[in-house]
Amino acid sequence: MKKLHTLIIKSYLGPFILTFFITLFIFVMQFLWKYIDELVGKGLEWYLVAELLFYASANLVPMALPLAILLASIMTFGSFGEHYELVAMKSSGMGLLRIMYPLLFVTFLTSVCAFLFTNYVWPKANLEFASLLYDIRHKKPAFDITEGVYYEGLDGYVIRIEQKDEDGKGLNDILIYDHTKKEGNIHVIRAEKGRMEMSVDERYLVFTLENGTSYEEILEEKKPHMKSEFEKEVLRFDLSGFQMERSDKDIFKDNYQMLNLVQLENAVDTYNLALEKRNEEFARVILRKTLPESNDSTNLEQANAADSAKVIAYNDIFKEHKTALMETAISQLRSNKTFVTSRANIKESTVKSINRHLIEWHRKFTLSFACIILFFIGAPLGAIIRKGGLGMPVVISVLFFLVYHITSITSEKLVKQGELDPFTGMWMASFILLPIGLFLTYKASTDSSLFDMETYTKSIRNFFAKFIPKKHLSIKEN
User: How far is residue 113's CA from residue 118's CA, in Å, rounded to a whole number?
Assistant: First the structure.
């Protein structure tokens, strides 16, 4: 029996590892296509791009893992059925659940590892990914001066070069606008030729200009401008702004995607306490503005008597005083309306923050549960369709994964909008696929021909045979 279990596990691990890395590669390419505009043209070192893709791939594992389990289980049991190995196992007295037992144990271990990954590794990967992507987005494009184009990448300068030599360092017809004084084009340098080189430490760009003229307007004197000619002049431009600076990761550490299970629970408790405190404060303010401080019957009677006295006194006031009092009352009502609206907006924002944290809290469990459910869908499907390889199993697994993924995204969006509670929204996809997995497992255990078209056509023929005479059927069959 141990040899059989070893055979089943080895037959499963190969397709699982293969499909996992294939699906992960596809998702990483999708990520790269999405953020390609943020990466191109900034002169990033290869190790920065590799680091970003590494953290992105860690972020995409929760999507690739369930699909890999589903596809590998279909391929494994489909291959067993196609080569009649499944029939041989059943003929020895083993049921389908008994055959699935070793892979169910492997899937359970995978689910535990998925939970540990989402709880400990995923938050740190998200933090590193968000920090690095933020730094790359705010990095200036790489220094690149094109012929005949005004280049504005250097702070305080605009440079135009008419022509470059073949080595890319020799320059001809150079025009430099100096805007460092921030008073317009008051300083212009023009040279016939020159040379552009980097300093040894690559912190400065050195321009060596030859046969040029410098024009500068003098705003504080009566002379219109100052003109000077030179045979050789050296300009140095600071390139420190083109270096990518890493930001402080503490900026992102409190985001809900960067928290583990305990931190999420603490954050939700903090939000709930703040929300409860605001509700109590709101109730006190509203009661103070609308009702007496105490609610006992004595004070209420006294308040009613006082209100009656106020009404009598109000009727004795002159008409112009009544108008002023009405305007004051309307102003107070507007103030109360503004106060209630602002409190409602604060409460809505707090509830949304709580829901986002609860989404991440439930996600750490739904991923592990989805791995088990998709295994119970994939293994029976493979036993029923009896097809291995990457043909039919890929089509069926992608369809089921799309149902799972689209349902998850839609329900999560409804939770963020406040139309569903976090528990229902995050577990909806699992609740939908669980009955399907149980149904397929039952059908496969009973050797049901669920996808055999001949079974359905035979049932249709038997149905119409009740209404068509037998002689007509025999003629058609002949």
Answer: 9
Does residue 14 carry a pLDDT above 70?
yes
* pLDDT(290) > 70: no
For 15-34, letters b (16+ CB in 10 Å) and e give bbeebbeebbeebbeebeee
d(CA 229, CA 231): 7
Taken in order 240, 242, 248, 249, is the CA torsion positive or negative? negative
Q: Which residue has the tokens 């008073």?
A: 183
Percent of the chain at pLDDT exceeding 90: 3
Task: Specify if 302 maps to a domain.
Answer: yes
Range of the domain at 283: 258-358
Domain end among 305, 340, 358: 358
The number of distinct structural domains making up the chain is 2
**Residue-averaged pLDDT of the chain:** 77
Whole-model pTM?
0.67
In a domain, 301, yes or no: yes
Q: Is residue 65 part of a domain?
A: no
- Give the whole-angstrom CA distance, residue 204 versus residue 157: 14
Helices (H) and strands (E) in the chain, counts: 13, 5
